[in-house]
Design goal:
about 425 residues, alpha/beta, Aspartate Aminotransferase, domain 2, four-stranded antiparallel sheet, 15 helices, globular, binds pyridoxal-5'-phosphate
């Protein structure tokens, strides 16, 4: 048995993984074409043909609609702004509650705040890390306006069930689909099951335009509202005779022609890019399945997992080695391994101090909800004890590197007694 790199042996992998690369000659040519035109954005913030953007935006949105089989695709400059627009479009106002998971990128829970909405945290499911339906149901009150669900790490939340629950209570279901493009549940793309689905085209995602995002919906009214919020919609109220002025306070959330041109090319290869991530994750799961205390990612029946993150659970009580020590050993072998993902978002200072918009505590002064430890025990346990992540969308691994990654896991787990011993001695020192 070879000695762990952490304990003085040689590492399994000597060369850091190459960063994940999605950009090629197609994107370069597309950018060149737009550069030659000189028109780097086509939007005008008034009622005219260009209200919906220039030719590249029009082409990009048509391609996105076709790909996801939806009536409307509204490009924006990030998933974050897309979610803000979505909160506006579904009518969130001061004091309205929006049910969100705590175990996600912070932007999810920020979106309601810009309209005075109150994020209400429901717990996640212990196996898929996405919102737990019973916890959501228990969180619904007469003040609930929307559910902002996250398809975390590349896996669908129970979207069809949540959609039924939302419809039953007259709520909007908005999907934060930043991490799960081309994931499916019951044969339908995630993002297309809620009333609005929001994608990210940020550099760190499966495919990207640097910064960018897209909202999709089949609802004509929501689509118009999203477009108005994206692009100074107050100027359209009169020409379009818009009756309901709620939240028609427009921003500039517009995507450039350059990003849109890149987006068309990226979408064109999205099947291949996502399938590559999926294949890598599946091989990793098969290669390490059954190691003591380690649970590889679960794929629910009737779902396609697209693996933004390969998120495994670790149970230290089965091995006698802490998660921190295990991660340290894996990292020393050359396998980049994260611990815990994010702390439950309600522990962020803004929730703890109840200060968001202005200095008077708005919008928290409209609610007596409190945010503190214990609110979502499953998410807390995942963060503090169980989660071990491998960031599939950060690296391109060769077959040999993937094989070595699997070998590194086996090496670490074969050396558990030595690690336990090392940890004991460290604790005594
Ligand atoms: C990346 C991410 C976001 C933010 O996306 P941007 O396009 O960078 O604004 C939001 N939610 C989740 C779950 C994400 O992973």
């Amino acid at each position: 048995m070879s000695t762990l790199a952490l304990l003085g042996g040689s590492p399994t992998l000597n060369v850091p993984f190459r960063p994940y690369m999605t950009i090629g000659a197609e994107e370069r040519a597309a950018v060149d074409r737009v550069m030659s035109s000189g028109r780097l954005s086509g939007f005008i913030g008034a009622w005219c043909d260009e209200f919906g953007g220039g030719p590249e935006i029009v082409k990009f949105e048509a391609a996105w609609r076709a790909k996801f089989g939806v009536k409307h695709a509204i490009s924006v400059n990030s998933n974050t702004t897309g979610m803000i627009a979505a909160m506006g479009a579904v009518g969130v106002g001061p004091g309205d509650e929006v049910i969100v998971p705590p175990y996600t990128m912070s932007a999810t829970a920020m979106a309601p705040l810009f309209y005075g909405g109150i994020p209400v945290f429901a717990d996640v499911d212990a196996e898929t890390y996405c919102l737990d339906v019973d916890s959501v149901r228990a969180a619904i009150t007469p003040r609930t306006r929307a559910i902002l669900v996250v398809n975390l790490f590349g896996h669908a939340a129970k979207l069809h069930e949540l959609r039924a629950l939302a419809d039953e209570h007259g709520l909007a279901l908005v999907e934060d689909n930043a991490q799960s493009p081309l994931a499916t549940e019951r044969g339908r793309y995630t993002g297309a099951i809620g009333h609005i689905g929001v994608f990210s085209l940020n550099y760190h995602k499966h495919f990207h335009t640097g910064e960018g995002g897209v909202c999709i919906t089949d609802d004509d009214d929501l689509a118009l509202r999203l477009k108005m919020i994206r692009n100074h919609g107050e100027n359209l109220v009169e020409p379009l005779n818009v009756a309901d002025l709620t939240n028609i306070v427009g921003f500039n959330f517009r995507m450039t022609e350059l990003s849109a041109a890149i987006g068309v090319e990226q979408l064109g290869k999205s099947d291949r890019l996502v399938a590559g991530r999926e294949a890598m994750a599946n091989r990793l799961s098969e290669g390490v399945r059954g190691l003591p205390g380690l649970s590889v990612p679960v794929v629910r029946e009737d779902c396609r997992h697209v693996y933004y993150v390969w998120g495994a659970r670790y149970d230290a009580s089965k091995t006698g080695v802490s998660r921190a020590m295990l991660a340290k050993a894996l990292n020393a072998e050359g396998v980049p391994t994260g611990e815990g993902y994010v702390q439950p978002l309600y522990m962020l200072p803004l929730f703890q101090k109840r200060v968001a918009i202005g200095g008077q505590g708005f919008p928290f002064n409209l609610t007596n909800r409190h945010y503190g430890p214990g609110l979502c025990p499953v998410a807390e346990k995942l963060h503090h004890e169980q989660m071990l992540e491998f960031w599939i969308c950060s690296f391109d691994l060769s077959d040999a590197e993937l094989q070595s990654t699997i070998e590194a896991y086996h090496k670490v787990f074969e050396n558990l007694p030595a690690l336990a011993d090392f940890e004991r001695r460290q604790a005594q020192a």
